[in-house]
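In the previous chapter we treated chains in isolation. Here, by contrast, the input contains two separate entities that must be folded as one system, with a combined length of 204 residues.
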Amino acid sequence: MRTLKHPSREEIQLTDVFHALSDPTRLAIVQNLGDAHEQSCSGLNIPMAKSTLSHHLKVLRDAGLTHTRVEGTHRLMSLRREDLDARFPGLMDVVLRTAPVS
Amino acid sequence: MRTLKHPSREEIQLTDVFHALSDPTRLAIVQNLGDAHEQSCSGLNIPMAKSTLSHHLKVLRDAGLTHTRVEGTHRLMSLRREDLDARFPGLMDVVLRTAPVS
């Protein structure tokens, strides 16, 4: 099975997390994922070219915000809530309870 | 007295705040300001060309993170803690209690 590279918990940097969240689409993806289980790309319901969406998902993954599991032809995303709460307690609470970007 | 433009509380956007905080120097400035009173540029103790520092301070001001008061030839900065707490409760607590960027 192909696996994707993810930073370890200790490697997650606050400035990288802020950069990833500074884009309205990426912030919306994180808010959509929320505390839900895994979601597929189509489940995110973001109307956007696949290549653009893939870029945003890579930025989120590289920053340590999301985990992507490859299952066959599907990619299943989830928020790394436990890692983020351990690194920056309270941050995800703020992000998820702020009204989604309009 | 010359006054600088600042966004109103309602105009402060979460993505702009995250963009401003995604740079290690700007994050350090915000953490230096903390809950302190006003600080001058020199008080920030950031070893950097004045023009570069001015740029960073403008990004912070435009995002609504800081307020700059012009007094003669001095500029005095402060964190807009009350506005930020009203817009994004808990965010500044997280930012200020996270260990400064090394």
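Chain A has one domain: 13-93. Strands of chain A lie at 39-40, 66-71, 74-79. Compare these points with the single-chain example from earlier in the chapter.
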